Amino acid sequence: QVQLVESGGGLVQAGGSLRLSCAASGGTFNYYAMGWFRQAPGKEREFVAAISWSGGSTGYTDSVKGRFTVSRDNAKNTVYLQMSGLKPEDTAVYYCAARGNAGYTSTYTTRAEYYYWGQGTQVTVSS
């Protein structure tokens, strides 16, 4: 069973930056495709970013392109989400997700494609 633990959330002013981390344990992290999702109050959980298990492919939702960067360190079993140029509309609980049986360069953008989820970390952006 894979466990995912997010960290790095907090309160930041608009225009600021945060780096979220997601530490994985209990599985073969090197072969898991990873994703970041977020859920704002009263809204559905939505896709933010994804990275293939090789690290060679990434994907982003349009609203974060050019501001967020997803990366991974397989030696540390950790995936990161570097967020800059934060806006109040980025306020949400951010979740990381993992799936095995993934293609070398495949990224996944829907909730149903992921098998494991973390507990989430709150990001609040003040205006």
In words, what does this structure look like?
With 127 residues, the protein is mostly beta strands. Helices cover 0% and strands 48% of the residues. It has strands at residues 3-7, 10-13, 18-25, 33-39, 46-51, 58-60, 68-73, 78-83, 92-99, 116-117, 121-126. Strands 2, 4, 5, 6, 9, 10 and 11 form a seven-stranded mixed beta sheet that branches. Strands 1-3-8-7 form a four-stranded antiparallel beta sheet, with no helix packed on it. The relative contact order is 0.32. The model has no long low-confidence stretch (mean pLDDT 96).
Summarize the structure.
This protein has 127 residues and is mainly β. It has no helices and 11 strands.
List keywords for this structure.
127 residues, four-stranded antiparallel sheet, 11 strands, 48% strand
Name the helicity range: under 10%
Low confidence ranges: none
Count of individual helical segments: 0
How far is it from the N-terminal to the C-terminal residue, by CA? 40 Å
Give the total of beta strands: 11
Strand content: over 45%
What is the radius of gyration?
13 Å
SSE ordering:
EEEEEEEEEEE
Mean pLDDT: 96
Strand and helix map with partners:
Layout: E1 3-7, E2 10-13, E3 18-25, E4 33-39, E5 46-51, E6 58-60, E7 68-73, E8 78-83, E9 92-99, E10 116-117, E11 121-126
